[in-house]
Amino acid sequence: MNYPIIGLFALAFTFGSVASNAIASEPPTIVLASDAKYAPAPKPYPDGAQIAVLSGNPEKAGSQYAVRLKLPDGAVIVPHTHGDRENVTVISGTLLVGVGTSFDASKMLALTAGSHASIPPGLPHFAKAKGLTVVQIDGVGPTSTTAIQ
Length: 149
Hints:
Jelly Rolls, mainly beta
Protein backbone atom coordinates (compact mmCIF):
# COMPACT_ATOMS: atom_id res chain seq x y z
CA MET A 1 0.00 0.00 0.00
CA ASN A 2 2.94 2.36 0.62
CA TYR A 3 4.61 1.56 -2.71
CA PRO A 4 2.98 4.43 -4.64
CA ILE A 5 4.16 6.97 -2.07
CA ILE A 6 7.69 5.57 -2.11
CA GLY A 7 7.57 5.67 -5.92
CA LEU A 8 6.57 9.33 -5.86
CA PHE A 9 9.44 10.18 -3.51
CA ALA A 10 11.87 8.29 -5.74
CA LEU A 11 10.54 10.08 -8.84
CA ALA A 12 10.73 13.48 -7.13
CA PHE A 13 14.28 12.77 -5.94
CA THR A 14 15.37 11.62 -9.39
CA PHE A 15 13.72 14.58 -11.14
CA GLY A 16 15.21 16.99 -8.62
CA SER A 17 18.68 15.53 -9.20
CA VAL A 18 18.35 15.83 -12.98
CA ALA A 19 17.00 19.40 -12.72
CA SER A 20 19.77 20.51 -10.37
CA ASN A 21 22.42 18.98 -12.66
CA ALA A 22 20.97 20.89 -15.63
CA ILE A 23 21.03 24.17 -13.70
CA ALA A 24 24.54 23.59 -12.38
CA SER A 25 25.99 23.24 -15.89
CA GLU A 26 25.58 26.96 -16.60
CA PRO A 27 26.30 29.89 -14.28
CA PRO A 28 23.50 32.36 -13.58
CA THR A 29 23.38 35.79 -15.18
CA ILE A 30 22.95 38.41 -12.47
CA VAL A 31 22.72 42.10 -13.32
CA LEU A 32 22.29 44.65 -10.56
CA ALA A 33 20.13 47.59 -11.61
CA SER A 34 23.11 49.91 -11.10
CA ASP A 35 25.26 47.76 -13.41
CA ALA A 36 22.93 47.74 -16.45
CA LYS A 37 24.85 49.16 -19.43
CA TYR A 38 22.49 51.48 -21.33
CA ALA A 39 23.11 52.73 -24.87
CA PRO A 40 20.95 54.75 -27.29
CA ALA A 41 18.01 52.63 -28.47
CA PRO A 42 17.78 52.00 -32.23
CA LYS A 43 15.02 53.39 -34.45
CA PRO A 44 12.05 53.30 -34.44
CA TYR A 45 12.45 54.03 -30.70
CA PRO A 46 12.30 57.78 -30.01
CA ASP A 47 15.26 60.08 -29.42
CA GLY A 48 16.40 59.87 -25.81
CA ALA A 49 15.35 56.24 -25.40
CA GLN A 50 18.03 53.96 -23.99
CA ILE A 51 18.36 50.19 -24.03
CA ALA A 52 20.40 47.69 -21.99
CA VAL A 53 20.75 43.99 -22.80
CA LEU A 54 20.50 42.11 -19.50
CA SER A 55 20.85 38.57 -20.79
CA GLY A 56 20.87 36.55 -23.99
CA ASN A 57 21.17 37.95 -27.47
CA PRO A 58 18.01 39.52 -28.96
CA GLU A 59 19.43 39.12 -32.48
CA LYS A 60 20.28 35.40 -32.21
CA ALA A 61 17.77 32.76 -33.25
CA GLY A 62 16.57 30.73 -30.29
CA SER A 63 18.25 32.94 -27.68
CA GLN A 64 16.05 33.79 -24.72
CA TYR A 65 16.76 37.45 -23.97
CA ALA A 66 15.89 40.20 -21.52
CA VAL A 67 16.41 43.91 -22.21
CA ARG A 68 15.51 47.08 -20.36
CA LEU A 69 14.20 50.10 -22.21
CA LYS A 70 14.38 53.51 -20.54
CA LEU A 71 12.01 56.12 -22.00
CA PRO A 72 12.02 59.84 -21.13
CA ASP A 73 8.74 61.50 -20.15
CA GLY A 74 6.50 62.00 -23.18
CA ALA A 75 8.49 59.69 -25.46
CA VAL A 76 6.25 58.27 -28.19
CA ILE A 77 6.84 54.86 -29.75
CA VAL A 78 5.20 54.99 -33.16
CA PRO A 79 2.92 52.18 -34.38
CA HIS A 80 5.04 49.13 -35.10
CA THR A 81 5.13 45.34 -35.13
CA HIS A 82 7.59 42.72 -33.94
CA GLY A 83 8.64 39.47 -35.57
CA ASP A 84 8.60 37.71 -32.19
CA ARG A 85 6.30 37.77 -29.14
CA GLU A 86 7.06 40.84 -27.04
CA ASN A 87 6.65 40.35 -23.28
CA VAL A 88 6.75 43.72 -21.52
CA THR A 89 6.83 44.35 -17.77
CA VAL A 90 6.75 47.93 -16.48
CA ILE A 91 9.51 48.42 -13.89
CA SER A 92 8.86 52.10 -13.12
CA GLY A 93 6.80 54.97 -14.47
CA THR A 94 3.73 54.48 -16.65
CA LEU A 95 3.58 53.09 -20.16
CA LEU A 96 0.50 54.07 -22.13
CA VAL A 97 -0.18 51.40 -24.79
CA GLY A 98 -2.62 50.99 -27.64
CA VAL A 99 -3.29 48.56 -30.46
CA GLY A 100 -3.66 49.66 -34.08
CA THR A 101 -1.85 50.97 -37.10
CA SER A 102 -2.15 54.67 -36.20
CA PHE A 103 -1.37 56.45 -32.95
CA ASP A 104 -4.64 57.14 -31.12
CA ALA A 105 -4.37 58.45 -27.54
CA SER A 106 -8.06 57.63 -26.91
CA LYS A 107 -7.31 53.90 -27.35
CA MET A 108 -4.46 53.80 -24.82
CA LEU A 109 -4.38 51.87 -21.56
CA ALA A 110 -2.10 52.93 -18.69
CA LEU A 111 0.29 50.21 -17.52
CA THR A 112 1.82 51.18 -14.17
CA ALA A 113 4.81 49.63 -12.38
CA GLY A 114 4.33 45.87 -12.06
CA SER A 115 1.95 45.63 -15.04
CA HIS A 116 2.67 43.15 -17.82
CA ALA A 117 1.64 42.80 -21.47
CA SER A 118 2.34 40.00 -23.95
CA ILE A 119 2.02 41.12 -27.56
CA PRO A 120 1.79 38.50 -30.32
CA PRO A 121 4.10 38.72 -33.35
CA GLY A 122 2.74 40.95 -36.12
CA LEU A 123 0.19 42.83 -33.94
CA PRO A 124 0.47 46.59 -34.62
CA HIS A 125 0.78 48.61 -31.41
CA PHE A 126 2.10 51.94 -30.10
CA ALA A 127 3.11 53.45 -26.76
CA LYS A 128 3.92 56.62 -24.85
CA ALA A 129 5.85 57.16 -21.62
CA LYS A 130 4.24 59.07 -18.79
CA GLY A 131 7.11 60.17 -16.58
CA LEU A 132 10.52 58.55 -16.84
CA THR A 133 9.52 54.97 -17.65
CA VAL A 134 11.58 51.78 -17.53
CA VAL A 135 10.25 48.54 -19.03
CA GLN A 136 11.73 45.08 -19.30
CA ILE A 137 11.20 43.19 -22.55
CA ASP A 138 11.65 39.43 -22.64
CA GLY A 139 11.46 37.15 -25.63
CA VAL A 140 13.16 34.57 -27.82
CA GLY A 141 15.30 35.89 -30.65
CA PRO A 142 15.70 36.94 -33.20
CA THR A 143 13.67 40.02 -32.40
CA SER A 144 12.74 42.66 -34.94
CA THR A 145 10.84 45.93 -34.83
CA THR A 146 9.18 47.33 -37.96
CA ALA A 147 7.63 50.81 -37.93
CA ILE A 148 4.29 51.18 -39.70
CA GLN A 149 4.52 54.02 -42.20
